[in-house]
Amino acid sequence: MEKKQWGFIDSGNCSPSFNMALDEALLDWHSDGKIPPIIRFYGWNPPTLSIGYFQKVEKEINLAAIKEHGLGFVRRPTGGRGVLHEHELTYSVIVSEGYPNMPKSVTESYRVISQGILKGFHRLGMEAYFAVPHSEEEKDSLKNPRSSVCFDAPSWYELVVEGRKVAGSAQTRQKGVILQHGSILLDLDEDKLFSLFRYPNERVKERMQKAFKNKAVAINDIRQKPVSIEEAKQAFKQGFAEGLDIELIPFELSKEQVQYVEELASSKYESDEWNFKR
């Protein structure tokens, strides 16, 4: 049987607003039947803090620190918590809810889509597996996250190596289409990450940062031979093809499509109304 063909885009490093606008545009175009399902890889220029759709900037985010570090800032169209996009591979998956064998529930569709990331880790020789919260306390912490930091706790079917989270993902569903995007950590500057959020006091911050070390880890902290971004792209591209049983075909945006994304980036994702609205 022939494998289904999906489009593959490697956008390279783009501005925070362009990255989010392109994910949204791909969702719209796929909903309209103009493009196939898509796997996209991208990076961030400058390095950026992205926050979840429901996060409250004034309450949770230290904007002065973002400025001090020269970081970009953008609100995602997906939920979840704050992510520092710096030394990582970011991916997005755009596929219709009605795709063959795609589970209806968000949790189960995460598992299916994330098979691609799982296989990517295996290709890097890493023993990754899916986190499934067992205890009531773990399940409760998913409903009521204590921290604004995304990598602070694994969610259902998030990817874990040696008990610590190595990839964080978020999903939205609009117009009959699933958009799942997430970050795969190659390296992590914990001090910088923790400076970007607000805490009741220094003691709480220190306690959370200390606990964080037991919950999240970057690939190059646990792999004997460091992985370059190019090696990661190759491993995870093959991982997605294998995990989703698809063939990936390079997909080029037309001039008109790029222009549309640029307009959406400036009108929406660069606007204070969008980024600071909650």
Count up the domains. 1
Tell me what the CATH architecture is. Answer: 2-Layer Sandwich
**What are the low-pLDDT stretches, counting only 5+ consecutive residues below 50?**
141-145
Kindly report the CATH topology: BirA Bifunctional Protein, domain 2
Helix-strand pattern? EHEEHHEEEHEHEEEHHHHEHH
CATH class label:
Alpha Beta
CATH homologous superfamily, by name? Bira Bifunctional Protein, Domain 2
The fraction of residues assigned to DSSP E strands is 25-35%
Structural class comes to alpha/beta
Structure annotation, total helices:
11
Kindly report the spatial arrangement of strands forming the biggest sheet.
7-8-9-10-6-2-1-11
**What's the shape?**
globular
Query: Helical amount among residues, as a percent range?
Result: 25-40%
Mean pLDDT: 90
**How many strand segments?**
11
Q: Note the main sheet.
A: 8 strands, mixed
Q: Report the C-alpha radius of gyration, rounded.
A: 18 Å
User: How far from one another are the termini?
Assistant: 49 Å
Oligomer: single chain
Q: Mind explaining what this structure looks like?
A:
With 278 residues, the protein is of the alpha/beta class. The protein has a single domain (4-275), classed as Bira Bifunctional Protein, Domain 2 (BirA Bifunctional Protein, domain 2), CATH 3.30.930. 38% of the residues lie in helices and 26% in strands. It contains eleven helices and eleven strands. Strands 7-8-9-10-6-2-1-11 form an eight-stranded mixed β-sheet, sandwiched between helices. A three-stranded mixed β-sheet has the order 4-3-5, with helices on one face.
